[in-house]
Write a structure and sequence with these properties.
The chain is mainly alpha-helical. The protein has helices at residues 2-6, 14-32, 35-65, 74-94, 99-104. The chain starts with a helix and ends in a 6-residue tail after the last helix.
């Protein structure tokens, strides 16, 4: 049973489509749960950070480091960018970093 799972292709077949579909649904949930304020602040900031980090990663891998003779494929670059966008939206959704949330949270023992 385990060897059958280990033989699944990560590039062809249903597995990449399943992972991509799950990611699209999760990204949709994060976008829908953002609310009005999230659309004004969180989404543009997450988009800018994800685009910047993706561009920096492509620059480092394709120009500076060059571990592969060919440039990174576009689907891989897009997947990295969408993944970073999802992480950014999730961090923005947590609000643990917000000073307002920190001031309004109750202190332990009170």
């Amino acid at each position: 049973m385990i060897s059958a799972v280990l033989d699944w292709s990560l590039l062809d077949g249903p597995l990449p489509w399943l992972v991509a579909g799950t990611g699209v649904v999760a990204l949709g949930v994060l976008l829908a749960a953002g609310g009005r304020r999230g659309w004004r602040r969180g989404v543009p900031v997450a988009l800018a950070v994800a685009a910047g980090l993706t561009a920096a990663a492509v620059l480092v891998v394709d120009v500076v480091w060059r571990p592969f003779p060919d440039p990174l494929p576009l689907p891989l670059i897009l997947a990295v960018g969408v993944g970073l966008l999802g992480i950014g939206l999730a961090v923005a959704r947590l609000r643990w970093w917000s000073p307002v949330a920190a001031r309004s949270s109750p202190t332990p023992g009170s």
